[in-house]
Every structure is written in structure tokens, then in C-alpha cells.
Amino acid sequence: AAEIDRWVIDKAFSTLAKYRNGNEATFYIKIAGTNLSDPEFPDWVGSRLKKYKLDGEAVVFEISERTATHNLNTTVDFISRMRSMNCRTAVEHFGVSDQAVQFMARVPADIFKIDGSLIGGMSDEQEIQARVKSLAGSAREQEALCIAERVDDARTLALLWQYGFDAIQGYFVQEPAKELGYEFESEIV
Questions:
Q1: First to last CA, the chain
Q2: What's phi and psi for 105, nearest 5 deg?
Q3: From CA 6, how far away is CA 173, in angstroms rounded?
């Protein structure tokens, strides 16, 4: 997994460097737990940023909640090292565990991506709505962004807007595409 991550990151950075020439874009890149504990990985990321003349703020590294929970100290150290290069970190698939809010207080991630299983089931479930609203509030208290995964309908979008989410992802906005460059401005009314 570590070698695959490095290959993906190198290809992503190469693509991002070409695309960002006059465009704004941020790439979210998932990484495996093995890279969290590799002390050479952050230096390697720094060398790739220099190679492609990228500012770290164009990159967000995603760590799953499960991986981060099982490697808490390593995750906190990784986040610190990424911040030193202006890279951000996100904890994805977040909020399913009962200790999510306590975990959030211990992990200084820049972004928390609320798990799609919660988002997808919230439109008619008040208990899930309350949980999602609480997670969004906790993220704001941490001064972290909160993103909803798997938003597929307008009712869910309206609830997320009320709860103060910073962004959404899902088929309601745009299905995956082979090419970069979707223009969201045309969708804003």
C-alpha cells in the first residue's frame, strides 16, 4: 500500500501542477496507515511538492477514522508534519464510532468528512440528524471544516446547510468524471 500511495501521490502532484496553471484546485488524496508510521514519508512528500513546484495548501491528505483511531499518536505527529509544509489533513468516514467527538478533540485535523452512511440515512431519521448536527458543531468548535460524504438529494442538502457544513460531496452535485474542470459556477442560481 505504501508504494501504491507514493505512485498515486506522484501522479496526482504531476496532474495538479499542470492543472493549477491558472486554475484553482485542491486534490484530496487518501493514504494508507503504513505511511502514517513511515518517518520518511513526510520528507518524501516535501520533495514531491518541490519537484512539481506546488504549494502544500493545494493538497489534503485523507486518513480514515479507523486508521487514525488505531494510530492516534502517529496521526497527530503526521498532521503536524504535514502542516509544516502547508498541507492539510482530513479524517474521512468520520462519526460512526461512539467516541467520535472525543476523538475529534484529540486529533487536530483540518477537515472532518462525515461518513456517508450517516449522511445517506439522515433525511428521515431524527436521531441521525441530531448526531450529524452535533458532529458539525464540534468541528466548528475545533475550527475545522466539516464535509458531508455521499449527499444524494435536496432534502439532505438543506439539512446540512442548516447545520453549517462547509462542503458536500456526492452525486447530487456531480457524478465522477474522467476529466478535471467541472464548472460549479454554472450551477449556482
A1: 43
A2: -70, -25
A3: 29
pLDDT given at position 123: 85
Grid cell 514519508 — which residue?
41
Distance CA 113, CA 95 (A): 8
Instruction: Give the Cα separation of 7 and 127 in Å (integer).
Output: 41
The H or E element that residue 146 is part of is strand 145-148
Bridge partners for 168 per DSSP: 148
| Residues 56 and 86: beta-carbon distance below 8 Å | yes
Percent of the chain exceeding pLDDT 70 equals 94
The secondary element (H helix, E strand) that includes residue 70 is: helix 65-70
Q: Is pLDDT of 188 > 80? A: no
CB 159 within 8 A of CB 122: yes
Q: What is the pLDDT of residues 126-185, one digit of tens each?
A: 999 999 999 999 999 999 999 999 999 999 999 999 999 999 998 887 777 777 665 655
